[in-house]
Design goal:
About 5% of the residues have low confidence. The two termini are about 25 Å apart. The chain contains ten helices and eight strands. The chain is of the alpha/beta class and about 250 residues long. It has one domain: TIM Barrel, CATH 3.20.20.70. Helix 9 packs antiparallel against helix 10. It has an eight-stranded parallel beta sheet with strand order 7-6-5-4-3-2-1-8.
Length: about 250
Amino acid sequence: MDRDEFALAATTNDLTRESEARGAADFIEFRMDKADEPIAQLDSYDGELPIIATNRSQWFGGNAIDHGRLDRLMEAARSDAVEMVDIELETARGKEWVVDEFRETDIELIISFHEFEETPDQSTLNAIIEECTQYGDIAKVATFANDQTDTLRMLNAINTATTDGTKIAGISMGEIGSHVRVLGPLYGSKLGYAPLETDTSEYAPGQISLQRLRSLIEAIKQGETETQIIDGVEESVSASQGFSQTD
């Protein structure tokens, strides 16, 4: 996969569903923290799509307890199917030696930052992205959008980072920010995330299902109007059900 091109990851905790993502996804984001026997799933994985391994702590919106969390993520990094590993910026800050150990496995590192209540001011947001790049290969920054100004701030941050040569995955969480998931690639965002169509219980406000998100992004490439794109986003968001604190 050319990391200079946009890639879409299908988020799931069940690797046996990989076939459902083919044709729409470029990666599987495997949520180990929500999976039953995640290492056993990786050992038996025979899917076609490469894996992004994520083992999110309870402190950062996931389900994993701290004890042994990074050990299990390291074990996943050694799997032939895993091409990228997601590590929280806070973890990288406090345990930089962990970053060095993961680099020895020859996988790419996504350094992620999540803010579930707001979007920082522009200078702070840009600084967070820059700090993520100090530790990893891709900076993933997901913040909650309370208004349209927040979404513009995220798009500007994506554009600025891309212009500076940073590989960025920028996400505005919440219903107001849903269109950033579609328009982000236009500004340079390199990674998007979406649940499988039937994972309605995993939807957070603003998330768009995998096949729908792919079709909306392709519509941009084909030159459909902004009004058509936004209408499609609104339809997708209104169809989603339930809530969970995830990106």
